[in-house]
Amino acid sequence: MKDNHMNDIITLKSYIYLDEFEINSLYNQLYPDILQETVTYETKKNNNLNGSINGTALGMIEAEGIVGHSSDTLYSSEIQTKVTIEYKANVIIKHVCNNRLNSLFDIIAESCRSHSMLRGRIIVGYASFLLTTIYDSDDNLIELRSIKNNFEKKDTTFILESGDRKSIRELKLVEETDCYEDYFQSKEYGIEMHLGGNKIRREIRHLTKNIKEGKVFYFSVLGQISYAGANQYLVKPFAIW
Question: Which residue in 107, 129, 131, 133 sits closest to 120, CA to CA?
């Protein structure tokens, strides 16, 4: 791949979409023997406590406390450590791409040359996507021209497309649209990505001032890409930022 298509990924990311089930599944494959650690300690209900305890979880998280002796009344308490879903996503991204980000179209081209797509491939990449369709919980199309930014997204599905897609061309984009430069000319591959509304972590008004056909989003994606026939590919997203 060309170096000029690669950029460093910063450690901190503002995630707008997280699929916790898929991220947990991938993380457990990387660290199958990790157990959540609980530190139990005793202390007094009264004053004059002395001493200390500590525990380490996953070699990364330390819990410290104070114990001691004063009266005869004791109680037990626990410090429970947890690895957050955002941390897990960061670890997986680094494992997949070594914190180097490539265009999804470059990843597809490289996969075609190396025949590494097979039944799918876990990837990290970026692309510009157009919003083409939103479905409700009954798989009915939602009219994008009249939709409000604060509509209930929980049970909806957002269809985003990039590159050489028939439905993108059918939008009849004109030079005045905000995505003309990216999509008026055809690209070699087409990509489709579905977002479950219940996994989107922000209100729509935090992503865009308005919702319309052809609205362009510049996303970085951790997910699984698979071949859909002809020159078309599907991306199942696990994390988007």
Answer: 107
What's the length of the chain? 241
Domain that holds residue 202: 3-19+99-240
Does residue 106 fall inside a structural domain? Answer: yes
- Residue 85 tokens, joined: 């879903």
Is residue 55 located within the same domain as residue 134?
A: no
My answer on whether 104 and 218 are in the same domain is yes
State in Å, rounded, how far the first CA of the chain is from the last one. 22
Q: Could you tell me the pTM of the whole model?
A: 0.71
pLDDT digits (tens, 9 = 90+) for 156-178: 899 999 988 766 666 655 545 55
